[in-house]
Amino acid sequence: MIEKGGDVPEEDMYRTFNMGIGMIAVVEADRGEAVAEALRKEGEEVYEIGKIVPGSGRAQIR
Q1: Which of 39, 48, 55, 58 has the most beta carbons within 10 angstroms of its beta carbon?
Q2: Cα distances (angstroms) measured from residue 25 to each of 31, 32, 39, 57, 62
Q3: Looking at the 3D structure of the chain, how many domains does it have?
Q4: Could you tell me if 42 and 35 are in contact, meaning their C-beta atoms sit under 8 angstroms apart?
């Protein structure tokens, strides 16, 4: 609404407002589904966005 009504460029919207993920929860892999289900029961949308795995010490984003 702000973008369209105020003729605000999308780039400005992303710089000004939190238009990202919002909040994340890092949980043990074997508890992930239980945590996700509890959040869904509370009306939250849940997405798995990544995993923590052993590596070389450098982050990789895929």
Answers
A1: 39
A2: 11, 9, 11, 22, 19
A3: 1
A4: no
SS (H, E, C) 7-20: CCCHHHHHHHCCCC
8 A C-beta contact, residue 3 and residue 13: yes
Is residue 2 situated within a structural domain?
no
Mean pLDDT of the region 29-50: 94
DSSP class of residue 56 equals S
| DSSP 8-state class, residue 42 | T
User: Is residue 43 very low, low, confident or very high in pLDDT (cuts 50, 70, 90)?
Assistant: very high
Which residue range(s) make up the domain with 48? Answer: 22-53
Please tell me what DSSP assigns to residue 30.
G
pLDDT mean across residues, the chain: 88
CB 8, CB 1: distance < 8 Å? no
Q: Is residue 46 situated within a structural domain?
A: yes
